Amino acid sequence: MSSFNLPAMATRIVLLWAILGGFSSTQAIAHESNTGYILIGLRADSLYLTYKFDITDLERVFSLDQNDDQVIDRDELLTRVPEIYHFIETNSTIRLSYLRTSLARLDASFEEDRAGNLFINFHFAKSGMADLSALNVEINFFEAFGSDYKVLGRIDRHGELEQMIFTNATPLFKQEFSSQHRDLLRQFAAFVFLGIEHIFIGADHIMFLFGLLVIGGRFMTLVKIVTSFTISHSITLVLAALQLIVIPGWFVESAIALSIVYIACENFFVQKSDRRWLVTGFFGLVHGFGFANVLGDLGLPTKGLLPSLLAFNVGVEIGQIVIVTIMLPVIWALLHTRFEKQVVWIGSAVILVFGATWFLNRAFDLPVALI
């Protein structure tokens, strides 16, 4: 992450305190054990964010008492500040107007409450933001701190306050901001990017595409297969995103894994891919529900809902086309060697293993998933 010069750092920290009224106010957020805090301040084109930790909570995770004298002093804490900053960045996500963003680190600071409990504050900032249409915050500290840990927080947006709470069961906070100046084109572009991002980080969808392509086939046959998948997942994406059909997420993700297992198994026996578009169309309906789950986590805007849905789907298709364009020449080249059968069998075996482990993990919560 980028860093600021010292005067700018000091200025922004002072501004943060002014915006939020300071963490020390027990009327704002009272101290509790096994509890962390987050405060977000939005001013003009800037965002200021602070995570606040009780050092006793940090000690459980980071073993701060390096000299084993049963006392955690500030010098010991300071040596671990970069590590804790990295932990925060790795286990939390901030999205501005639906796009993932990186925040610049500011200097950490110490604080004591009225009872003498020592806290350390980790400050972040981002400037140069355009008109903000939505804020999404995801915090995943709970595996490290324990399932009973919670994070309490507050957003101060131009003097308007809103409370937040993050728990193991509810790690997401989503807030859409009303704005007469919202740029619908920018929102459309953001959802296109989200669709592209999702298909590229969705290992299960990529593995499914790989399973469809690895047996080869005529170009027009492959076009029919990909088109069938596109049309069918677009249908269920819209239906699920509009909550016209609601299916539990674990069931959808398990079914997606089974679709990968089926395609992999079929590759060992199928001779021609001419009629595979029918099976692909059916499984595309399942994958569409998976795409919709992503939008559910992000929170669809109430304004520009249908354009945002369309944009996300366009992004998914762009990503899909890029992946197919990269995969297909390599697969065709390998299939035109004397190792054609081995390529299909080995590729399908790998796909089968991934699909099976995903299914066991998603359906039965077994810790066997490879990715």
Layout: helices, strands, pairs:
Blueprint: H1 6-20, E1 35-43, E2 46-54, H2 55-62, H3 74-90, E3 92-96, E4 99-101, E5 104-105, E6 109-112, E7 118-126, E8 134-139, H4 142-145, E9 150-157, E10 160-166, E11 172-176, H5 184-201, H6 203-213, H7 219-241, H8 249-267, H9 276-298, H10 305-335, H11 340-364
Parallel strand pairs: 1-9
Antiparallel strand pairs: 1-2, 2-7, 3-4, 3-8, 5-7, 6-7, 8-11, 9-10
Helix pairs in contact: 5-10, 6-8, 6-10, 6-11, 7-9, 8-9, 8-11
Query: Which residues sit in consecutive blocks of at least 5 with pLDDT less than 50?
Result: 13-32
Helix content: 40-55%
Q: What's the pLDDT, averaged over the residues?
A: 86
Choose one word for the global shape: globular
The count of DSSP E runs of length 2 or more, i.e. the number of strands, is 11
**What share of residues are in beta strands?**
15-25%
Describe the sheet with the most strands: 7 strands, mixed
Number of helices: 11
Distance between the ends: 26 Å
- Element-level helix/strand string: HEEHHEEEEEEHEEEHHHHHHH
Written overview of the protein:
This protein has 371 residues and is α+β, with helices and mostly antiparallel strands. It folds into two domains: 6-176, no CATH class; 184-364. 52% of the residues lie in helices and 18% in strands. It has helices spanning 6-20, 55-62, 74-90, 142-145, 184-201, 203-213, 219-241, 249-267, 276-298, 305-335, 340-364, and strands spanning 35-43, 46-54, 92-96, 99-101, 104-105, 109-112, 118-126, 134-139, 150-157, 160-166, 172-176. β3 (92-96) and β4 (99-101) form a beta hairpin. α6 (203-213) runs antiparallel to α11 and α7 (219-241) runs parallel beside α9 (276-298).
